[in-house]
Amino acid sequence: MLDWIANIIADMGYLGITLLMFLENIFPPIPSEIVMPLAGFVAARGDLNLAGVTIAGMLGSVLGALPWYFAGRLLGEERLKAWADRHGRWLTVTPSELDKALDGFLRHGGKMVLFGRLVPTIRTLISVPAGFACMRLPRFLIYSIVGTVLWSGLLAWAGYLLQSEYHTVADYLGPVSVAILVGIVLAYIYRVVTYPRQVGSRR
């Protein structure tokens, strides 16, 4: 995959970075932890500009977040509540919990989107609850852009400084992404297993 990513950046430049970061949000096995440091390394060689690399990465990432946002909007709060009422065990949430979660997102959604963009794995998933909560698109875009510029810029800057050792960024962040994903899966399994008891304790 590394050679494929390197070839796209070499052949397409900024457009290739935008395309890769778009696909990273749609197809998670393409990791930004490799794309952006590699792009930073290319900038360090003088073939691209570091600011342009950051902007291209941000643009692709934000565009890739939009399908998840609109999927949340399309599903909608009422349909989600109906699903929670019928299939709460598998959604691991009751309608009342969903109300609280959406209310919290309405009050703090901007911060959640901004900081969520800085966390591996979460940075893609955070778009869905933003859509559920019907966060206004301009607000969603502003916070997504700020968070994504920070994420893309830091990764590109790391690759710029490390140059030929840019892959060490992925070496450090890869286990973090895996740990977060495992934590999400384990939390989901725990909620499914304990769901009847949790519901009963609230009655």
Question: Mind summarizing the main beta sheet?
Answer: none
Rounded to the nearest angstrom, the distance between the terminal CA atoms is 52 Å
Detail the poorly predicted runs.
197-203
Tally of DSSP β-strands: 0
The total of helices stands at 10
Number of domains: 1
Secondary-structure element series: HHHHHHHHHH
Oligomer state equals single chain
Strand content: under 5%
Class of secondary structure makeup? mainly alpha
Q: Describe the global form.
A: elongated
Q: Level of helix content?
A: over 70%
Average pLDDT, all residues: 78
Q: Please tell me how large the radius of gyration is.
A: 19 Å
Question: Explain this structure to me?
Answer:
By secondary structure, the chain is an all-alpha fold. It has one domain. The longest helix has 36 residues. The termini are far apart. The C terminus is likely disordered.
Offer a quick outline of the entry.
The chain is mostly helical and 203 residues long.
SSE topology:
Layout: H1 2-12, H2 14-26, H3 32-44, H4 50-75, H5 77-91, H6 95-116, H7 122-125, H8 127-132, H9 137-162, H10 167-202
Helix pairs in contact: 1-2, 1-3, 2-3, 2-4, 3-4, 3-9, 3-10, 4-9, 5-10, 6-9
